[in-house]
From TrEMBL:
<comment type="subunit">
    <text>Homodimer.</text>
</comment>
<dbReference type="InterPro" id="IPR013097">
    <property type="entry name" value="Dabb"/>
</dbReference>
<feature type="domain" description="Stress-response A/B barrel">
    <location>
        <begin position="1"/>
        <end position="61"/>
    </location>
</feature>
<dbReference type="Pfam" id="PF07876">
    <property type="entry name" value="Dabb"/>
</dbReference>
<protein>
    <recommendedName>
        <fullName>Stress-response A/B barrel domain-containing protein</fullName>
    </recommendedName>
</protein>
<dbReference type="InterPro" id="IPR044662">
    <property type="entry name" value="HS1/DABB1-like"/>
</dbReference>
<dbReference type="InterPro" id="IPR011008">
    <property type="entry name" value="Dimeric_a/b-barrel"/>
</dbReference>
Length: 67
């Protein structure tokens, strides 16, 4: 994992659809991401949220190069 950040919604637009927290992880490669997702520590971390969160969204993306 290259980096990990988290925070709470502070938007004034009220478009969060009920989501209040974000956890963002950055990886150097898709292979690194895949290894992390399968890692027992990640599975345990993710499972901990299933009983406290009404819904969870996961988005994987590759940033587009600046134009």
């Amino acid at each position: 994992m290259k980096s990990f950040e988290w925070g709470t919604d502070v938007s004034i637009e009220n478009l969060n659809q009920g989501f209040t927290h974000i956890f963002e992880t950055t990886f150097l490669t898709l292979e690194d991401r895949s290894a992390y997702v399968a890692h027992p520590a990640h599975v345990k971390f993710g499972t901990a949220f299933l009983h406290i969160a009404e819904k969870i969204v996961v988005i994987d993306y590759v940033p587009r190069p600046e134009q």
